[in-house]
Amino acid sequence: MPVLAQADLRLDANPLDFVLLVVYFAVVLGIGVMARRSVSTSLDFLLSGRSLPAWVTGLAFISANLGAIELLGMAANGAQYGLPTVHYYWIGAIPAMVFLGLVMMPFYYGSKVRSVPEFLRRRFGTGAHLVNALSFALAQVLIAGVNLYALALLLNLLLGWPIPLSIVIAALVVLTYTTLGGLSAAIYNEVLQFFVIVAALLPLTIVGLHKVGGWNGLVDKLTAKGAGEEMSAWPATELTGISNPVLSVIGIVFGLGFVLSFGYWTTNFAEVQRALSAKSMSAARRTPIIGAFPKALIPFIIIIPGMIAAVVIPQVQALNEGGDAAGITYNETLPLLIRELLPNGMLGIAITGLLASFMAGVAANVSSFNTVFTYDLWQDYVKKDRPDEYYLRVGRLATIGGTIIAIGTAFIASGYGNIMDYIQALFSFFNAPLFATFILGMFWKRMSAAAGWIGLVAGTLGAVAIFVMADPKLLGVLDLPGQGASFVGASVAFVLDIVVSVVVTMFTKPVPEEQLGGLVYSLTPKADRTHSTTGDDAGWYRSPALLGGGVLVLTTALYIIFG
Questions:
Q1: How distant, in Å, are the alpha carbons of 215, 218, 305, 308, 341 from that of 210?
Q2: CA torsion sign, 530 to 536 to 538 to 539?
Q3: CB–CB of 87/304 below 8 Å?
Q4: pLDDT tens-digit profile of 114-168?
Q5: Which of 292, 78, 300 is nearest to 203 (CA)?
Q6: Residue 387 and residue 381: Cα distance in Å, rounded?
Q7: What's the per-residue H, E or C state across 128-196?
Q8: Angstrom distance (rounded) from CA 85 to CA 71
Q9: pTM as predicted
């Protein structure tokens, strides 16, 4: 485990920077205390009583994704791979977010399910429900561990605290406000955190570009050091680890753009939960689409700083050239750039923004974990038919338990030089097969209950097998460096899940059609999939289809300019 609190790596924070941090923490905890007043039922604690407006849930939707995975991981990717990292946003997020809002949210919100696993229980029964609830709970504590590790890494750089101590302290802060106010506290803090993150990273991009002579200066400097592919989004062979350009593009479009992206954005309850907390179906549909607009622009304040670091931070340059990086990994790219470029005061804002980001990520993971544990595991399989106060108490205890487990999983994340490699592997295990089961079950009424859980298990095992064969620490028989193993693993998981589900369905009984209303597209009346256009939902500018089309046009324009 790296220890980075050496004198030449410490962030040179002064009292003004620490005052900004203290003020921010006080506001965060204050939001938790105020949100506690509105929590009287388990639905209030775990789903905000389904009462929030679209702009709040939309910003929370994207802020929940702006955790350590996003900031440290994508800045690390920007430093290591350059412009091809934009694929994680423009093809690896935006289309799936629009699809979630336009196609899938009417089923999620209209069926009044409290979680994604609960939707699977209604469609396929207890087998698929239990498999997904267990795998999702495991995934959330693993991903929360990534965010905790990143938060601890920053505290280590800032204060010199040992990584283990920093992990525990970071966990306690998030645990306090999430346990007090539940999902409402997490969501309102996520809205605050979104603006703090932008305020922190935008100056970093501006100052960094000024230092290297603007965009043209950055291009010239990267080109001069032989980084030709870093300045072109396609074919991204270094990012995928696939040397054949055609196969690399296929890997990005199918593995990332379809399987990993749709698997994450349409079935990941940590994100869907924000939309389920909206006050109407129209607001729920607009939630991911509103979040897609800032998502399309975020590369300019995350990836570009990573690319700048590749030419102004000596240790990152050394990493790219295979030289001595003095114990630095790509994960430290963003904190080191902040230390290099920002003066005191602005440094405090940047540090606060990073802390806000990491806490948003942990809170999103923990708040979705406690909901699935309470409703989908404890209530369904351990203690049924108890008073609501009992499940409210279980939800709070699950929040504590999930955070403690995440402290342990943070040490797994510490073993990866680029946490994006680790997180993409997790997505290929858990999200890719789940998306296959969802999309097949939602549009194919014949799919049986047995196929639901058997396909999930088969797809997950397929992705794990690819990971084991590609990881040089394990078998290492597949040559898939970078994040290529995740793209291939996700593709294998998706295809294997589909094939196994179709075969199993042929030999098992389908679910009776009368049980599938609101769960299968062809058996759900159009009226049940249509949102209100009156009152707070009135106005052409609130049309989910119009908003979705607008963000797709924006993304296409960005690809034309920078692709």
A1: 9, 10, 12, 10, 10
A2: negative
A3: no
A4: 777 888 888 898 998 898 889 888 888 888 888 777 777 777 766 677 777 777 7
A5: 300
A6: 16
A7: HHHHHHHHHHHHHHHHHHHHHHHHHHHHHHHHCCCHHHHHHHHHHHHHHHHHHHHHHHHHHHHHHHHHH
A8: 12
A9: 0.80
